[in-house]
Design goal:
The protein has one domain. Helices cover 78% and strands 0% of the residues. The longest helix is centred in the N-terminal third of the chain and has 32 residues. The protein starts with a helix and ends in a 6-residue tail after the last helix.
Length: 267
């Protein structure tokens, strides 16, 4: 564990030094974030105050949906990009021969990036709530954090699975496109799942993001207790419990197969 922590600190230090060199990026990201928030606010006003999907005002509904969908897409993309960058720079073969297990290596590489995305997501939601004075009532912060932790674990698994696809097929971006499309359309990112046909509603409940958004919105804006959050929490725990071991096995198998075929550095 100490060795793992030391590796993580080294990677985080590297990423922090890199980020400091590109301070203009922070400013541009902040401006873009504000423009997006304002856009969603006026979109919600155009739709009208009478629209309360799942009992929640449309602006905070959009705020949570789009911020988490962006976090998930960016996080999964980070796994694919980490593998692809190693392939492009010719370091993939060297990295895969170190004593660190392959899944740990790719996880360590993107962990600090994930942290940055998570901070950005909190800032996006926080700024939107504060600037436009969205009432929270009595949010269940503990329940929201529980849902968030399980959601992040599931997102890790999806990212490692996408990285496995990149190692085997060199087409990880295709997996990203499919995931992003399904997330935007089926999981209630910008409109409630209840407006979909019955068959698609059933399909949406097979996607972890649906349960993440439902749990986060209910905990933050409907004061849902742990009893009301039992459905999303159990679903996410099952997804995380199944997908995490599966993703680790998948990535380890993908690397072993690529080594046997001599295609580790292909891109």
């Amino acid at each position: 564990m100490l060795q793992l922590a030391d590796k993580l600190l080294s990677i985080a230090r590297r990423d922090l030094l890199t980020a400091v060199r590109y301070r203009t990026g922070f400013v541009l990201h902040g401006v873009g974030m504000l423009i997006e928030i304002v856009t969603f606010y006026y979109l919600a006003r155009a739709v009208g105050p009478q629209f309360h999907p799942d009992g929640i005002a449309y602006f905070p509904f959009l705020l949570i949906g789009t911020s988490y969908a962006t976090f998930l897409a960016s996080g999964v993309s980070a796994f694919v990009q980490a593998v692809r960058e190693a392939q492009l720079t010719g370091t993939m073969e060297v990295l895969m021969t170190t004593a660190t297990p392959p899944y740990q290596l790719v996880l360590l590489t993107v962990l600090s990036t994930y942290g940055a995305y998570l901070v950005s997501t909190f800032a996006f939601v926080g700024v939107g709530l504060v600037v436009f004075h969205v009432p929270l009532g009595h949010p269940n912060v503990g329940g929201a954090l529980l849902v968030l932790v399980l959601s992040v674990l599931t997102a890790f698994a999806l990212g490692i699975l996408a990285a496995s696809f990149q190692v085997i097929t060199q087409k990880g971006t295709a997996a990203l496109w499919l995931l992003n499309t399904a997330t935007a359309f089926l999981t209630g990112t910008m409109f409630p799942v209840s407006v979909l046909p019955q068959s698609l509603q059933k399909l949406s409940w097979l996607i972890p993001v649906t349960h993440s958004l439902n749990g986060l919105r209910q905990a933050l804006f409907c004061s849902a207790g742990l009893r009301e959050l039992r459905g999303p929490v159990v679903a996410l725990a099952v997804f995380a419990g199944v997908l995490l071991p599966l993703s680790i096995l998948s990535f380890s198998w993908a690397v072993r197969r690529a080594k046997l075929e001599g295609s580790v550095a292909f891109y």
